[in-house]
Design goal:
16% strand; two-stranded parallel ribbon; alpha/beta
């Protein structure tokens, strides 16, 4: 079976606007250009690029809008940061403009905002379609909702293609988040009501545990965790306890595992070298979620590649997104069927999109 990949989390626009990493260029070309620069020093070896995505059969990417807060206990070095809703809005719109530019400028990139868009992208991956006609489809995901100036303003983002929203990164006006415990705010509850009216997908990655459970109790739309790992492997509020995983499964959610070494081992266990970080650890995390769920229908991949770390901080065997298909034989070795492997690599997140997209 010729598998495809759905990657539920890549910070493509942030990389362009803050690091000058254009998705249209090869990861290797960007690495060469960054030799000796602060970008390489602070963000590691670039892993994403359109050529590698096409080679690795990455058919769909949940491409993020990410505005970095000026004051946060949990932040990345960024060229553009915000301290007001207006500044967050400006950053977010600039990143959304980039996604429209990508789709308008390159025949192998398409924006996915509706069922028909999704099926047209997937049709380019049929066996009889030449390689040069394959397309990478981008579904826009807002990571941290502060660019939405007020709940009713979500309509303008939806009209321009945003289909998935995570209320938190760290603390936002809408929700507690990573390293910022707390629940949903009044604005957060109002935003969920507006999102539900558009049948938008809620991304609970980065939400503080209290906010996570409150959101699952009140939101009746599709829910995912685009890029989160089980706390059994990395015990922090950034990840999901077994109880949180069970609640997501009960709600029909899908969890995207993150192949980032700092998220896959407890600090005292983290391998010192890439060569000592086996890719089989990713399959082990996937299997843990499947055992809790009782099936392979609630897990996928959300790499977070080029989200502040690079290839040197990922498992041995991963150099760029072109290598994600290496997970297939590891899952097969654990006894997963071809049908289950296809679900994990792409089908589970495709099911979310087919349910939620207009």
């Amino acid at each position: 079976m010729a598998h495809i990949i759905v990657d539920a989390h890549q910070d493509l626009a942030w990389n362009m606007r803050d690091l000058d990493r254009d998705f249209r260029l090869s990861a290797y070309a960007k690495r060469k250009a960054e030799i000796g620069t602060s970008v390489a020093q602070h963000n590691g070896l670039c892993m994403t690029g359109l050529p590698e995505a096409l080679l690795g059969r990455v058919a769909v990417i949940f491409a993020t809008i990410f505005a970095n807060p000026q004051r946060s206990t949990y932040s990345l070095p960024s060229r553009h940061m915000y301290s007001t809703p207006a500044e967050a809005h400006q950053i977010g719109m600039s990143q959304l403009d980039y996604y429209h530019e990508l789709a308008d400028s390159h025949p192998n990139i398409a924006l996915i905002g509706a069922q028909g868009d999704l099926e047209r992208v997937l049709a380019t991956w049929q066996p009889d379609v030449p390689f040069e006609q394959h397309q990478v489809g981008l579904v826009v995901l807002m990571e941290g909702a502060d660019p939405i100036r007020e709940p009713k303003a979500f309509e303008e983002w939806y009209a321009r293609g945003v289909r998935i929203v995570g209320l938190a990164w760290s603390q936002t006006r809408y929700s507690g988040g990573t390293a910022a415990p707390g629940g949903l705010t009044k604005l957060g509850r109002e935003l969920l009501e507006v999102m539900a009216s558009f049948r938008a997908v809620l991304d609970v990655s980065h939400m503080a545990e209290q906010a996570f459970f409150e959101a699952l109790d009140m939101y009746d739309g599709q829910i995912i965790a685009s890029h989160s790992n089980p706390r059994r492997f990395r015990d922090s509020d950034r990840h999901l306890s077994d109880q949180m995983i069970r609640r997501l499964v009960e709600r029909g959610g899908v969890i995207g595992v993150v192949p980032y070494n700092a998220f896959m081992w407890q600090p005292e266990q983290k391998p010192a070298r890439k060569a000592d970080a086996p890719l089989s650890r990713v399959a082990e995390m996937i299997d843990h979620i499947c055992q809790i769920a009782g099936s392979a229908r609630h897990v996928g991949i959300g790499t977070d590649f080029d989200g502040g770390f690079g290839a040197e901080d990922t498992p041995d065997g991963l150099d760029t997104v072109a290598d994600l298909l290496s997970l297939a034989p590891l899952l097969a070795a654990r006894g997963y069927s071809e049908t289950d492997i296809a679900a994990i690599l792409s089908g589970n997140f495709l099911g979310v999109l087919r349910t939620a997209l207009p």
